[in-house]
What does this fold into?
Amino acid sequence: MRSKAKRRVPRLRSERSVRQFWASAESSDYVDWRQARRVAFPHLRPSTRTISLRLPEALLADLKILANKQDVPYQSLLKIFLAERIRQEFGKLKKAG
It folds into this structure.
């Protein structure tokens, strides 16, 4: 059985426009997923955004002590802690819902 012709993905000029396009597009109209292959992008870094976060001085001092003991920058340790907790919370939501 022949698959129908796929549409062309439009040229998009920014990451934001790419995200908006794929958020509303049906990917199977553009991609024949039966021919898809897994790939790895080992050097790809996720997009980041700088934020301002106010922490009590004692909490920041404790975070820096823990980070020093683990030999990692304190901001990296904070990201690890946040990611672990967010994963836990989503796990609770899946079990409840």
